[in-house]
Design a protein that fits this description.
heterodimer; A: alpha/beta; Rossmann fold; 2 domains; seven-stranded parallel sheet; 17 strands; about 25% helix; B: alpha/beta; nine-stranded mixed sheet; two-stranded antiparallel sheet; binds flavin-adenine dinucleotide
């Protein structure tokens, strides 16, 4: 028995969401009286023994370049084999692009009940019940998993990272890999920007900015905050901003610590993509804008006057000239 | 060539979310039902576009649910599906649903299976991946572009921090999102034609359910929005920094 935590990597580095599931998986292992072990797929340049400080006793690696691209079919066979070799009873993923591609497939292969989009640690006092977000963040469901093996895919940004002073042993698993049926011909990473789903702070603009030429005020604010940038759907549809910035029910779902909405009315479909944010701030000139009902802090006013003042004030606070 | 498009019935995006029976069931009263937007706008419309280029393509639709799903299946047929299956079972377990669809897929030997990237009610993003495992096909999730050249597909998908372009020989299972196609509305001819298109009701295969919903909860109500005067921006920044500790 063990809890096996499958870590996300990209560009040969362990991702932030991986530290969250290491903490989560280690706490879960302590709760059910077993050990937490991590699984790393592909070639990674980070110090894997140091992952022990997030609570795992062992790190298993399948060190092959063919796993540097996520092929769900190949990943699934490999992970299922690792589950067998480590005798895992719970497999933990992060509900990132990789988790969405792989966790469900692994669950089907293992005939394991899946909770995808988990929001907190399971209740194991009577069965195995995991809380997950449903209805695009408008509610939670408590799901009971009945199968012997359980698969959990945790929403990013839903637990805090806990560190100890442990170290882990690192070993290589020997698993025969099939050839991938997917031939990757190009990878285009968005450079010079903070990936939206990883951003701690997101500054988002709506139709209230009036046109793409006005985005400077928003970008200045995002820059001083080290924030990712997002937009409402009409802004993406009108090509004022690239479509990968569109957040909401039909766009990207984000859950940063701070979400700042500028000139966005707060339609229910927009809120569905951002309502898991810890703190929401709204700047809107219409006091009746529905966003104020969902927000934590707000100013009624013209964003073109207010946002530059916010930027200046944060610069002062951070001591940026 | 045969394409299977998986569709599910979800509450309209503006629906009020409430529960009944001591929070164990979704309150359906007053809810408008729609085809899950990702299934309709991206998976189904892209399949229809492929058929418009190559009329020999046959599009099958499948859903798992009761007779209350029939209106959304008729709408999907009106948009352009050729034939539909409804597996007559009610379940919230992803494995049960995917395994039922996999049974249909095994009987009909599809070249392509499309799903939406997730359903807007249970948000698990699980069905496509599970089907792909059960029918042993490659799986491409979160696709934003899909082109077909003979029996090879070129697919662009979202990955961590960017996108990836890949070539895959059919068959393949693809989960579809924004970028794949543009939303359409059914026309009168489609609506008339849909009435006589086959909608086959099939009884479910014997499949285990691996999870069940214990109950639902609504998030705690917000404390309310703290308003700051427009001429007091420094106060907003102070609150964010000191009270909310947001940066
Ligand atoms: C099925 C469906 C799915 C959808 N999915 C999404 C989705 O995923 N994401 C999404 O965002 N939308 C989605 N929508 C659209 C959504 O309903 C709204 O239409 C959209 O979010 C509105 O965008 P907005 O707030 O930018 O624009 P508007 O609603 O036009 O709001 C602009 C706001 O800016 C304010 N404003 C104007 N000028 C200023 C100024 N100078 N200073 C300050 N404030 C100003 C106005 O008071 C107003 O509140 C969806 C709709 C449907 C039907």
């Amino acid at each position: 028995m063990s809890v096996l935590i499958v870590l996300d990597q990209s560009d040969n580095h362990i991702k932030k969401s991986a530290y969250e599931i290491l903490s989560y998986g280690s706490q879960l292992a302590a709760q059910i009286g077993t050990t937490a072990e991590a699984l790393v797929l592909g070639t990674v340049n980070d110090d894997l023994a140091a992952l022990g400080k997030y609570g795992v006793s062992k790190v298993h690696q399948v060190n092959s370049e063919s796993l540097n691209h996520v092929d769900a079919q190949l990943y699934t066979k490999t992970i299922a084999e690792a589950v067998a070799q480590t005798n895992a009873s719970v497999v933990v993923f992060s509900q990132t692009h990789t988790g969405k591609s792989v966790a469900a497939r692994v669950a089907a292969r293992l005939k394991a009940g899946l909770v995808a989009g988990a929001a907190s640690l399971p209740d194991t006092s009577n069965g195995f019940i995991v809380r997950k977000t449903v209805f695009s963040g408008k509610a939670f469901a408590n799901i009971s998993i009945q199968s012997p093996i359980k698969v959990i895919s945790l929403n990013p940004n839903s637990v805090s990272v806990v560190t100890t002073d442990g170290t882990a042993t690192v070993d290589q698993l020997s698993i025969a890999l099939d050839a991938s049926k997917i031939k990757v011909t190009a990878v285009n990473k968005i450079t010079g920007e903070i990936p939206l789903t990883e951003a701690d702070i997101v500054v988002s603009g709506g139709r209230g900015l009036k046109g793409p030429e006005n985005w400077g005020v928003l970008l200045d604010l995002a820059k001083v905050l080290g924030a990712g940038t997002a937009c409402s759907r009409p802004v993406g549809d009108a090509h004022w901003r690239p479509h990968h910035e569109h957040v909401g029910q039909t766009g990207v779902q984000v859950a940063p610590n701070l979400y700042i909405a500028l000139g966005i009315s707060g339609a229910i479909q927009h809120l569905a993509g951002v309502n898991r944010s810890k703190v929401m701030v709204v700047i809107n000139k219409d006091p009746e804008a529905p966003f104020f009902k969902a927000a934590d802090y707000g100013i009624v006013g013209d964003l073109f006057e207010i946002v530059p003042q916010m930027t200046a004030e944060i610069k002062k606070l951070k001591g940026i000239a | 060539m045969k394409i299977l498009v998986c569709v599910s019935k979800t509450p309209d995006t503006t629906s009020k979310i409430a529960f009944k029976e001591s929070n164990t069931q979704f309150e359906e009263a007053g809810v408008q039902w729609i085809i899950n937007p990702y299934d309709e706008w991206f998976a189904l419309v892209r399949a229809i576009e492929l058929k418009e280029k190559d009329p020999s393509i046959i599009i099958h639709l499948v859903t798992v649910g009761g007779a209350d799903c029939d209106p959304i299946i008729r709408k999907a047929l009106a948009l352009g599906g050729d034939e539909a299956f409804r597996i007559n079972a009610d379940s919230n377990d992803s494995f049960f649903i995917a395994a039922q669809i996999a049974e249909i897929a095994k009987q009909n030997q599809y070249d392509l299976i499309f799903t939406g990237k997730e359903a807007i009610d249970y948000n698990s993003a699980a069905i496509g991946g599970m089907i792909s495992e059960l029918v042993d096909m490659p799986y491409v999730s979160l696709a934003t572009l899909f082109e077909l050249n003979g029996t090879t597909a070129t697919i662009t998908r979202e990955i961590e921090g960017g996108e990836e372009v890949a070539e895959i020989s059919l068959p393949v299972v693809v989960s579809c999102q924004k970028g794949m196609a543009e939303q359409r509305i059914p026309n009168m001819r489609g609506i008339m034609a849909a009435r006589t298109k086959p909608l086959k009701v099939v009884e479910p295969a014997a499949i285990d359910t691996l999870t069940s919903i214990v109950n639902f909860e609504l998030p705690p109500a917000k404390a309310g929005c703290k308003m700051v005067a427009a001429d007091n921006v420094p106060e907003l920044i102070r609150l964010l920094h000191e009270e909310a500790k947001a940066f």
